[in-house]
C-alpha cells in the first residue's frame, strides 16, 4: 500500500498534466478547454484517444503526428511527466491525506502559471482567481492553514503586489520616462501577478506571501543580471524590449513552490539564527 498510493497518485497526475497543457495553452488566448478537441497543428485532424495517452503516446509515435508526421512539441510529455512526478512525490511524503491533495493542486496551478507566463506573458484568471477560490475552500480541510489565515494571506498577497506595482511604475517613469511605453506595457507589475499572489496567499498565508515575494525577486534579479551580461547590444525597438521583459510570474511560482516545501524551515531558521528568537 505504501508504494501503491504514490503510484496511483502519479498516474492521476499524468492525466492532470495532460489537461494542464491544454489549459496553459488555451486560456491565455481565450479559447475553450472543452471544444474543439485536441488537434494536430499540421493537418488539423482530431487526435484519437489512443494517441492522447500521457507520455506513452508521444513516445510510441516518436513525437510525431500519426496522420501527417508533423512534430509534436516536447512540452506535452515533459509537462505530463513532471506533473505526475509531483503528485507522486507529495503523496509519498504526506500519505493519502488532505494536505497531499491540497499541495498537489497548489503546485499544479503554479506549474500552469509558469507555462502560460513564460509563453504568453499572461497569467489567466482561471489559474489566479480560480486558484484563490480553491485555496480558500481547502483551508477548511484538516491540516495546512485555517480559513482566517487563508483570507488574510489572500488579502495581503493582493495588496503587497498591487503596492509594488504602483510604486514600481512611478519609479520607472520618473527615472526613465517612456521606458514602459517603449516596451508596450503601461505598468511595472502586471495585474496577473497581483491576482496570482492573492492565490498564493490563500494557500500559504501571510508568511508565505512575504517569503514568496522575496524569493521570486531574488530569482528574477539573478536571471536579469545574467541576461544583461549576455546581451550583446541594447535593444533598438519596442518589440525587442518586450521580448526582454521578465515574466515575473515564473519566478513568483518558483518562490511559491520553495515556500510551500521548505518555507516553515526557512522561516524558523531565520527567526532562530538571525533574529535570535
* Mean pLDDT over all positions: 87
Order of helices and strands: HHHHHHHHHH
**How many domains make up the coordinates?**
2
DSSP summary, beta strand count: 0
Total helices: the number is 10
Shape: globular
Residue ranges: pLDDT <50 for 5 or more in a row? none
Please give the radius of gyration in angstroms: 20 Å
What structural class results from the helix and strand content? mainly alpha
Task: Summarize the main sheet.
Answer: none
Helix content: 55-70%
DSSP strand content: under 5%
The termini sit apart by: 42 Å
Please sum up the structure shown.
The chain is mostly helical and 277 residues long. It contains 10 helices and no strands.
Structural description of this entry:
The longest helix is centred in the last third of the chain and has 40 residues, at 191-230. The chain is mainly α and 277 residues long. Helix content is 69%, strand content 0%. The protein has helices at 4-26, 56-60, 75-94, 98-120, 125-138, 147-175, 179-183, 191-230, 238-242, 248-275. It is globular, with a radius of gyration of 20 Å. It starts with a helix and ends with a helix.
